[in-house]
Amino acid sequence: MLVHPQFSPIAFEIGPLAVRWYGLMYLVAFLLAWTLGRWRIRHGKTALTARDLDDLLFYSVLGVVLGGRLGYVLFYKPAYYLAHPLEILAVWHGGMSFHGGLLGVLLVMALFARRRGFRFLQVGDFVATLVPLGLAAGRLGNFINGELWGRATTVPWGMVFPQAGDGVARHPSQLYEVGLEGLALFALVWLFASKPRPVGQVSGVFLMGYGFFRFMVEYTREPDSFLGILAGGLSMGQWLSLPMVLAGLALFVWARRPAPAA
Predict the structure, then answer these.
(1) Which of 107, 119, 182, 248 sits at a 20 to 30 Å CA gap from 4?
(2) pLDDT average, residue stretch 112-119
(3) Which InterPro entries does this one have (predicted)?
């Protein structure tokens, strides 16, 4: 049995400024996306330019933060925040949703594509290759903070999270997510996108891959205490992932349709 190392949530301090690990992981995520995006542009893997990438990432930061926060409010605690609306702004108390962040980025992508004259799915295929390593960084931040721990387990690598307050060995589900939603998904999408594909297929693979990996990891992740297990014995994360798998499959099949006759 292992015990969580209890890292300090503060990575370093500069005078009165305290830089927290979780915020640092967001910075790492966007730096990785920028680096990978520049590589794809340099190697002719996309029609987007370096300026397009810079602008897209800038607005995507807003989409992730605003969408992630509003998604958490609407998907997980709507009644609480309806009663305490000012706390919606208290992001320092935690509470972000990947699925909400995804919706925020999709909105940014739609506006960006329209203004720059790209097809929405053309932008989506480009962005899909940049996201997974950023997800890995975010989940690593969750592990460092000792939050979003897993369910009780007897496996040899079970870990006690003192923040849980019960001394029970649990799955380090954050690290499972680093491996599956981050590294494995990156390898899957990057390799698939290494060859020319019909527009929309890379996006479809990303949606299917993330939805499937997240659905499976949720079996080891402790459900939110204020929600518990929902209908069908599934968690909220699983219910939100199922539409992603279905949408990804539909998009993948749709992208393979024969081109209309001239």
Answers:
(1) 182
(2) 94
(3) Lgt
Q: Tell me the β-bridge partners of 152.
A: 170
Give the C-alpha distances (Å, rounded to integers) separating 125 from 8, 13, 202, 203, 227. 37, 38, 5, 5, 34
What is the pLDDT at residue 260?
58
Of 240, 219, 184, which is closest to residue 68 (Cα–Cα)?
240
pLDDT bracket for residue 258 (50, 70, 90): confident
C-alpha 232/C-alpha 190 separation (Å) is 34
Strands, sheet with 169-170, edge to edge from the N-terminal-most edge strand? 2-3, 159-160, 169-170
Question: According to the model, what pLDDT value does residue 262 have?
Answer: 47
Beta bridge partners of 3: 160
0.85 exceeded by pTM: yes
Residue 177 CB contacts under 8 Å (≥ 6 apart), including other chains: 135, 136, 139, 142, 213, 214, 217, 221
Q: Is 170 annotated as a binding residue?
A: no
Name beta bridge partners: 159.
2, 170
- State both tokens at 156: 């040899």
